[in-house]
Here is the input.
Amino acid sequence: MILYLKAKTNLSDLSIDFIEVKLKSGKIVSLNWDETEYDNEDSVFEAKYKGVYFGEEYANGKLHELIGMEISHIQLYTEKDTGYFELVRMEFADRNDALVFEDIKHCQKWGDDCA
Here is the structure.
């Protein structure tokens, strides 16, 4: 499974360690990945995470479990004291299927309001 993520941010050194989501079943899983590619320019952070896991297990073939999920927590890393991160889009791709979440409105801030 691959996760494509897009966010607005003013944090030039931003990275994401993991994302916790609450599945429709009520189970909370930590999304982790094997490989990361990202671009962070002009206040837009875009990332591609390959080899997505649900906790310790590969998420391949489990796309249907993400339907209706909610973001519980995003573990961000930055050395900045102020800034914001606003998640606006997530797309999960698994083989020939895709699941897109848009207008998520998940925001984390340090001293600034979300854009």
Q: What stands out?
A: Strands lie at 2-9, 15-22, 28-32, 35-41, 44-50, 53-54, 57-58, 70-77, 83-94, 97-110. The CA atoms of residues 10 and 43 lie 5 Å apart.
